[in-house]
Design a protein that fits this description.
The structure is a single chain. The chain has one domain: Flavodoxin domain (Rossmann fold, 3-Layer(aba) Sandwich). The two termini are 12 Å apart. Helix 2 crosses helix 3. Strand 4 and strand 5 form a beta hairpin. The radius of gyration is 18 Å and the shape is globular. It has six helices and seven strands; from the N terminus they run E-H-E-H-H-E-H-E-E-E-H-E-H. The protein binds flavin mononucleotide (FMN).
Length: 202
Amino acid sequence: MVKNILHIISSPQGEASVSKKLGNVIIEKIKFKYPGSIVKERNLVTTVFPHLDEVQIGSWFTPAGDRSREQLTAVKISDEAILELQEADILVFGAPFYNFAIPSTLKAYLDHIARPGITFRYLENGQPEGLLKNKKAFVATASSGVYSEGPFQSFDFVSPYLTFLLGFLGVTDITFIRAEGLRIAGVKETAFEKAVGSITID
Ligand SMILES: Cc1cc2nc3c(=O)[nH]c(=O)nc-3n(C[C@H](O)[C@H](O)[C@H](O)COP(=O)(O)O)c2cc1C
């Protein structure tokens, strides 16, 4: 079965980026399992999503036909990003650890794709319902430190946040693949291979 894969890159390090390299390995493995799969790249460094402002938020809550010219321009980047998410079967996020969290470029992107009535809604009983259904996500993390275990485990604000936010939007099948300890002697030497070895594609 052919899959539509969306690779969301947030590292500014270009080809030297570990999270991008790891994302590419994940994608190669998906393509091996599902030959002919199509890959689309969303590079959050070459196309930076702006911080949400009054015009952008106003556009979301204004019916399409009533939007000002400014709002119509502003909403485009959000609409386009959501459409490519809706079209994807598999999402591959690159998520470097930046100050124990995700890079602000990725946060800005997530702010644009979490849209009430489009990617999530609240039911009458107040429960949220995610509207991005039937998708699988991989998150390729990269970090100098080790967060999957040990003394820094509780300072991982990447995986709990992405797990909750993506789940809120309906993407509940998430696998984290971690290249970690990239600056720790004795760990860094095998960190990438260890991450690659932990990838399984169902
Ligand atoms: C601005 C900045 C902040 C960082 N913050 C952390 C951090 O909080 N924890 C950590 O383990 N590594 C941190 N690092 C190291 C990166 O996570 C590491 O270099 C990783 O490989 C970056 O991903 P990339 O190679 O895909 O760009 C930081 C690096 C930079 C440049």
